[in-house]
Amino acid sequence: MTLNATAVASIQAWLAIGDLKVDDYLFIGQRGRLTVEIMSTRMKTWCQDVGLKGSYGSHTLRKT
């Protein structure tokens, strides 16, 4: 998988913290951690907003 420079820099900064715990999250939104439920809701909303027909959820992001 290829990551852009921003993604690589973000991951390197996260790893440089050094004192990471199992319950630390890589992706955090303005209101806290991004859960499967939150991402599934967002994905459905985005697809509806652009007029896509079908069933979309958080797993769709993993496959794209």
Give the secondary structure arrangement, pairings included:
Elements: H1 5-16, E1 28-29, E2 32-33, H2 36-49, H3 58-63
Antiparallel strand pairs: 1-2
Provide a descriptive summary of the structure in words.
This protein has helices at 5-16, 36-49, 58-63; strands at residues 28-29, 32-33. With 64 residues, the chain is mostly helical. It has a domain at 22-63. A two-stranded antiparallel ribbon has the order 1-2. A hairpin with a 2-residue loop joins strand 1 and strand 2 (32-33). The mean pLDDT is 79.
Keywords:
elongated; two-stranded antiparallel sheet; Tyr recombinase domain-containing protein; single chain; DNA_brk_join_enz
How would you summarize this macromolecular structure in one to three sentences?
The protein is mainly α and 64 residues long. It has helices at residues 5-16, 36-49, 58-63, and strands at 28-29, 32-33.
Helical/strand content category? mainly alpha
Helix proportion of residues, in percent? 40-55%
**Percent of residues in beta strands?**
5-15%
Strand arrangement across the biggest beta sheet: 1-2
Distance between the termini: 12 Å
Q: Any idea what the radius of gyration is?
A: 15 Å
Largest sheet: 2 strands, antiparallel
Give the CA-based shape: elongated
Low-pLDDT ranges: none
What kind of assembly state do the chains in view correspond to?
single chain
Q: What average pLDDT do the residues reach? A: 79
H and E string: HEEHH
Number of distinct beta strands? 2
Tally of DSSP helical segments:
3
Protein name: Tyr recombinase domain-containing protein
InterPro entries: DNA_brk_join_enz (IPR011010)
